[in-house]
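INFO worker-7 received task bundle
INFO bundle size: 2
INFO processing item 0
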Amino acid sequence: MTKKRNRTRPALSLQQRLNKFTQDARAAAKKLPAGTERHTLLQKARDGEAAAEMERLLSPPGPQHQK
């Protein structure tokens, strides 16, 4: 017998999750001194912003209907 997949939907939209990720990464980077770890967090924040922008450009205009 096979196990059923968990098919729950995320509570937030992709755009909201990407924005939260970038805010969290920037907040964590502000608490760190200059160095490799801070640079990595800031790079992840920039990557998240780029992903959010691509998602915004590729998504269809108008209101989205949740299923």
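INFO item 0 finished
INFO processing item 1
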Amino acid sequence: MTSGHPPVAAIVLNWNGRDNTLACLDSLSATDYPALELIVVDNASTDNSVLAIGAAVPQAKMLRNEHNLGYAGGNNVGIAYALSGPAAYVLIINNDTRVHREFVHELVRAGEIHVRAGALIPKIYRWDDPKRIWAAGARWCRVPPRVKIIGLNAPDASVFDRSRELEYATGCAWLIRREALQTVDGLDSGYFMYQEDYDFCYRLREKGYTLRFVPTAKVWHQVSAGLGLRSAHWWYQWSRSVVRFYRIKNRFPAHWLVLFAGWVMLRELVKGDVRFAAPYLRGLRDGWRALEAEGSE
């Protein structure tokens, strides 16, 4: 511990995102928190990321995966390394983010006050519109039943300035207490990407921890910079994970998934873009098959 500051291990996952990762690491290095360790997990990049990052940020620990393990699997490698050291908190943060100078300090301060908070959640702004919210946590929406981001694309306002408990949060950026990670046993690597953050929140609350929104901790996020927002691959991965999250964790019956899929189809068709349909339906099919295969083992 440095001068009374609990040690924090920051994990930045990289997959062919050299420039974003370097900018994110530069942003984290400029924070005012003195007990911050930087960990980069590379998911088998082919863009010379490892050499470039190692040369530019030699103080960062580089962990290299032989294969792309996805968001959950890749971050779990970093989590295991972080927990092998003295970290009291683990910061998981997307490489397409930039943070305020006091970002880490504000999250840790909230964590030391709210001792049952398993995860501390910052206020996340859009990179392309710095005064517009991308996420101020997430909540359960009843109709149709789903997790919904709070404040999505809304102008920043006083309503987003109150610290409070949350039901869910996006994994774009969060500070997680060491004991919470150990209790919940990290992220579920059954997800390749998407929904694993909501899954983690679900399991965290099941174990009696809370999630705390910390509006004084600020992040700016380039939305889906790595995969491409609403690309065919995005639709495929998202819908595949939706099946796992709602079927396993929330135990929705099969007919609910059919209704949910129909609602999403109708919503997108109203927007006039039908290109999403094929990858979306393939993702639902493959997600269901993966669950059946998992259940038969």
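INFO item 1 finished
INFO post-check item 1: The longest helix spans residues 277-296.
INFO post-check item 1: DSSP finds nine helices and twelve strands in the chain.
INFO worker-7 idle
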